[in-house]
From TrEMBL:
Record-linked CDD domains: HisKA (cd00082)
Protein name: histidine kinase
Location of the Histidine kinase domain: 142-344
SMART domains, A to Z: HATPase_c, HisKA
Catalysis: reaction(s): ATP + protein L-histidine = ADP + protein N-phospho-L-histidine
One GO MF term attached to the UniProt entry: phosphorelay sensor kinase activity
Organism this protein belongs to: Methylacidiphilum kamchatkense Kam1
Ranges annotated as spanning the membrane: 44-66
EC number: 2.7.13.3
Source taxon at top rank: Bacteria
Keywords: ATP-binding, Kinase, Membrane, Nucleotide-binding, Phosphoprotein, Transferase, Transmembrane, Transmembrane helix, Two-component regulatory system
Lineage: Bacteria, Pseudomonadati, Verrucomicrobiota, Methylacidiphilae, Methylacidiphilales
Length: 344
């Protein structure tokens, strides 16, 4: 049926027979139902269109994510494939949580590799150093055996000749001076070769530093140099003999470079769980271009020295697992600082 307003509808007729006393009765029911097939179809079409558009957008978004993932993974793979493990650069954030977790894992792996490489290099350095010390010790022992007796013979003959031959007194004195110089060089080499041999023990710091200062107090006064001492109370573990040798080398070095009327300051203090022994003077200090070489064996700017004093100090300090540093003093002089870790 079609109504006057143009809408379509369907008429439903229901016929139901009923039994009654009068006989059979038929009941008719009529219902009109509007036809909205076109409207429902349009709604279904719109829904399917939205579903299709959403699926397409979701697919495009997923493809973009997969492409971005693939690009980032390819970049990371390229870095890993072309870079040594210990030289992998820091990888920035990718913008994706899962990939960022992978990046963090790689960064941690990189740090572990670098730390492991540094540990291996440090162990190798110590091994080579120990081998060098052993070789130097053997050489020093050989030199001591081969040279001491001839030097003693030369010294004895020169001294005997000096008593009887007054004509060559000047030449004989030069021979004795050179023999003494060779003896000191030999002694320094032997000390350097045994610098790593230490016997640590618990030491009273105040007593130890005062005993060292007493040895050089008169010498400092004789040189016209003021010796200032700032001791420290308490105990520390180190080898008193080898550390005394290291301290004497630093103090002797300061006395040689401090002019008359100057001062030398010795300080013993505890810093950050380490014992710091510093020796500072009012001399001219060390030229900046020479500071990296001062601890190398046989490096010296003096005509009368052997360049082993600071090398011996460095070997002794490192045998205690410590370190020695050079710094410019307050008045431009030299300042050496020895740091010994707490091993109690």
């Amino acid at each position: 049926m079609k109504q006057f307003d143009g809408k379509r509808e369907t008429m439903l007729l229901y016929v139901t027979p009923l039994e009654s006393k009068k006989g059979k009765t038929v009941v008719w029911t009529m219902t009109r139902v509007p036809i909205r097939l076109v409207s429902d179809y349009e709604k279904l079409a719109v829904f399917l269109s939205f579903l299709l558009i959403f699926s397409l957008l979701f697919g495009i978004f997923g493809l973009r994510i997969l492409h971005a993932w693939s690009k980032e993974i390819a970049r990371i793979e390229q870095i890993i494939a072309t870079t040594p493990p210990d030289q992998i650069p820091s990888l920035g954030s990718t913008g994706f949580d899962e990939l960022d977790k992978l990046v963090v894992t790689l960064i941690n792996a990189k740090k572990n590799l670098i730390e492991e490489k540094n540990r291996k290099e440090e162990l190798m350095h110590k091994l080579l150093k120990n081998e060098r010390i052993v070789a130097l010790g053997r050489m020093a022992a050989t030199l001591a055996h081969e040279l001491r007796n001839p030097l003693a013979t030369i010294q004895l003959e020169a001294e005997n000749a000096l008593e009887t031959d007054t004509m060559n007194k000047e030449g004989l004195n030069r021979i004795l001076d050179q023999v003494a110089r060779m003896g000191k060089l030999l002694e320094s080499i032997v000390l350097l070769s045994h610098a790593g041999e230490i016997l640590p023990q618990l030491i009273d710091l105040s007593v130890w530093i005062q005993s060292q200062i007493q040895k050089y107090g008169l010498l400092a006064n004789k040189c016209g140099v003021e010796l200032r001492v700032f001791p420290c109370e308490g105990n520390w573990v180190f080898d008193p003999k080898s550390m005394a040798r290291a301290f004497e080398n630093l103090l002797q070095n300061s006395l040689e470079h401090t002019p008359k009327g100057g001062w030398i300051e010795v300080t013993l203090e505890k810093k950050d769980n380490s014992l710091c022994l510093s020796v500072e003077d009012s001399g001219k200090g060390i030229e900046e271009d020479l500071r990296e070489s001062i601890f190398e064996p046989f490096f010296t700017k003096k005509s009368s020295g052997f360049g082993l004093g600071l090398s011996i100090v460095k070997e002794i300090v490192e045998a205690h697992n410590g370190r020695i540093e050079y710094k410019k003093g307050r008045e431009g002089g030299a300042r050496f600082e020895i740091y010994l870790p707490n091993s109690t």
